[in-house]
Specification:
8 helices; seven-stranded mixed sheet; two-stranded antiparallel sheet; single chain; binds S-adenosylmethionine; alpha/beta; Rossmann fold; 11 strands
Length: about 260
Amino acid sequence: MRNEEIIETNREYWDKHADLWFGTTALPKYGVRFPTEDNLHLFGDLNGAKMLELCCGSGHSLLYNAARGAGELWGIDLSKSQLDNASKLLSDNGYSAKLICAKMEDDIDVPKTYFDYVYSIYGIGWTTDLQGTFDKVASYLKKDGIFIFSWHHTLNYCIAWSCDERQDVFEDDKFVMTKSYFDESYFKMPVHGSEIVLCNRKISTYINALAKAGFVIERFIEDSDLDSEEAADKTDLKTRKAEMLPISFCLKARKL
Ligand SMILES: C[S@@+](CC[C@H](N)C(=O)[O-])C[C@H]1O[C@@H](n2cnc3c(N)ncnc32)[C@H](O)[C@@H]1O
């Protein structure tokens, strides 16, 4: 599939289903059954900070940072429906942000060497050009600026219960490897009667691309939070999976 085709398929999905995701993957959460910003404290003092969110979705992370004193907020997202929701959410709460409807892969009219923070919560993995996107993030940040992002952990896509998770049948305590860890090719996935296109990148792919873009890694988190509300039901297969392998990961990097 060509990159443009992948992006258009994903845009169609997000424009159609934006309301279903209203506030679901946003700070202080980095992921489900995963430590939150309240536990991790990856962001420092935000007072007056210039912040850019890639794939800002419904704007709940922008709102979270606005409430913590951020000085300037910018958000980029592919989907107009998501940005309409973000704009309304922020204005309903007395805040505003510069919202730009664009692909993160594009050359966007965003100031260079300007931001204290660039971040993305479950957004970066959608890029069709990881190295190009990280290079752009580096160009937006000041020296020593911070880049934080979370995404699906690669292993979570490769490993499944040997039983049918949807039917919650739980006969044997075994996992099966359903996909090679090394396979970074794109795949289509049906969701909510539409389709999305993603790929599953190795963790080293993210780390090497960050290094090439001029970042040093300060934190790499791949823990599960089994005390979280989502993990309360210890018989839930997703919780049992989170007991054994990372479902999400989060990286904090500093621009050199
Ligand atoms: C899981 S959501 C992120 C939600 C966000 N953290 C929030 O608080 O709502 C992923 C977002 O990425 C956006 N997206 C997908 N591909 C993109 C791309 N190539 N460039 C920019 N945004 C993209 C989607 O429109 C969607 O809003």
